[in-house]
Amino acid sequence: MNASQTWKAYKQDTIVGEEGEGGEGGGIVLDISLMGPGHNDLEPLTPALENALEEMDALERGAIANADENRMVGHYWLRAPRLAPTNLIRHDIEHTLSRIETFARKIHDGEISPERAERFRHVILVGIGGSALGPQLIHSALGTPTAPLTLHFVDNTDPDGIDNLVEELGEALAETLIVVISKSGTTPETRNGMAELASIYDQRGLVMAEHAVAITGVDSELERLAKSRAWLDILPMWDWIGGRTSITSAVGLLPAALIGVDIRRFLEGARSMDSCTRRKDIRRNPALMMAAMWHKAVSRDHTAILVILPYKDRLSLMARYLQQLIMESLGKKYNRAGEIVHHGLTVYGNKGSTDQHAYVQQLRDGGHDYFATFIEVLKDREGPSEEVSDAATSGDYLLGFLLGTRQALMESGHYSMTITLPDVSARSLGALIALYERTVGFYASLVNINAYHQPGVEAGKKAAGSVLALQRRAMRFLEDGGEGDVEAIASALGVGEEEMILLHKLLEHLAANSRISKNPGADRFSHVYRAGQTSEG
After folding, report:
1. Fewer Cβ within 10 Å of end Cβ, the chain: N or C?
2. CA-to-CA distance for 90 and 513, rounded, in angstroms?
3. Where are the alpha helices (DSSP H) in 246-335?
4. This prediction's pTM
């Protein structure tokens, strides 16, 4: 049996979060004993780990951490406002939390109600990226069938997806609250979702403003719109909070409160883990140790894939949430010295034991290009479980599959760590999220990259803008009576060969949606579609 499996090694390589109200770490336990040969030799890495602690201390004191935008990074203040660098920020955090609780209570009590229904019974959250992934994780992990409101999402600019949701709600749209989340107020996907819903409300004789709440930046385009149309409320999204770390801001707290989650307990769990991960003793700091294990796996084995395996249905969205938190933070072309590094850590996963019937076959018998994290939950359910077979409950089987898969991976030379939660509750979920937030920050320090900007995302937005500008030029040409195949239209527009594929795809999309005509059997496009015409013209 591998020495890393021994009881002594397990005890040495387990970092325990203290349980109880005042305990650090929310009762979460990290086991790194199966992370391979030399994993616990931290001496070569100790100076870098100590530097990571110092950089995190500076960040929490208000140092500029996002140099690209000259901004502080303050998500840790959200659960401990006393740490905020100014009294104004502290007051804003505390006041916003109180406003969220008051607003949710008034919605639940019917004190704030829609104009054509007794009370609000549904919520549509319009957002993208962290503005949707965080609330989706909370909803999946902590939502219940008896929640005071049912939460739905518009998290893409897909017309068909919006239509399906509206059809699902039917007449219940009249008793639906709309929460629109965008820091800038100009995020295209969110703006489009909001515009689509506003049009649908108008068609049904409803006034969306009487159903709408905004979470946005100060003096953003969305804030100005919400004020001018007297929306129900406007909550802040501060410039020192990034989307991927916004779950303990109004972005996550308002949807959580609306579906009945105890947001104070959620924040308390995050705060307890923050306290635990400030420990200067490296071997007692779970986030620092997890960052060290990531670093060792990547540098030692040249692995760049992290597989997340939560053995709990409620945590099935954990890997999806962590994809953004980790990959947007760590996927960078340049390090902080301006050197090209092309660094990244790819994240994927679903849930156990479902994964054992999906890609675990490859994990066990395929390449050694990954390391895994198992997430175990001690509590099976509320109340006792019946034995289903061989004196075992369904929960016993679930744990057996987790331990068996972990053992199978170890026996085939694959490395893993295990995070154990006491339960899936507001407190433990807050602690788990905070553990990963701090781990990402520490790891970024170890590899000398900026975890708090996203130049690749911004580049994608700019490219999309250029594509849509080309579409507008093509539309104007056709509206003015122009026509022809792709090459003729490209020539008329002065479009080079490198853009002709884009132009072709844009024209095909416009024709498929009856906005221009395409001659049958020919790659020839003509005038704008008019009511009553067929797409054949």
Report:
1. N
2. 50
3. 250-258, 263-276, 286-301, 318-322, 329-330
4. 0.92
> Which domains are present in the chain?
3-67+266-452 (3.40.50.10490), 75-263 (3.40.50.10490), 456-528 (1.10.10.10)
Question: What's the N-to-C CA distance of the chain in angstroms?
Answer: 74
Among this protein's residues, is 54 annotated catalytic? no
Say what the pLDDT of residue 465 is.
83
Q: Per residue in 206-240, pLDDT tens?
A: 999 999 999 999 999 999 999 999 999 999 999 99
Query: Among residues 284, 239, 326, 319, which one has the least CA distance to residue 65?
Result: 239
State yes or no: is 357 an active-site residue.
yes
Average pLDDT, the chain: 92
And the tokens for 339? 């050197």
The H-or-E segment that residue 524 falls in is strand 524-528
The residue annotated as part of the active site, out of 167, 357, 382, 462, is 357
Q: Taking each helix axis from N to C terminus, what angle separates 87-109 and 263-276, rounded to the nearest 10 degrees?
A: 150
Q: What share of the chain in percent tops pLDDT 90?
A: 79
- What is the tally of helices (H) and strands (E) in the chain? 18, 20
Q: Which residues does 459 contact at the CB level (< 8 Å), separation at least 6?
A: none
Distance CA 358, CA 361 (A): 7
Q: Identify the helix (H) or strand (E) that includes residue 371.
A: strand 370-377
260, 263, 264, 270: CA torsion to nearest 10: 140
> Catalytic one among 91, 95, 342, 461?
461
Quickly list DSSP for 153-209.
EE-S--HHHHHHHHHHHGGGGGGEEEEEEESSS--HHHHHHHHHHHHHHHHTT--GG
Kindly name the residue from 60, 175, 223, 328 that is annotated as catalytic: 328
Q: Which of 278, 271, 265 is nearest to 423 (CA)?
A: 265
How far is Cα 347 from Cα 325, in angstroms, rounded to an integer?
10
* β-strands 392-393, 387-389 pairing: antiparallel
Measured CA distances, 268 to 19, 92, 381, 535 (Å): 12, 18, 22, 58
Structure tokens at 271: 């705060």
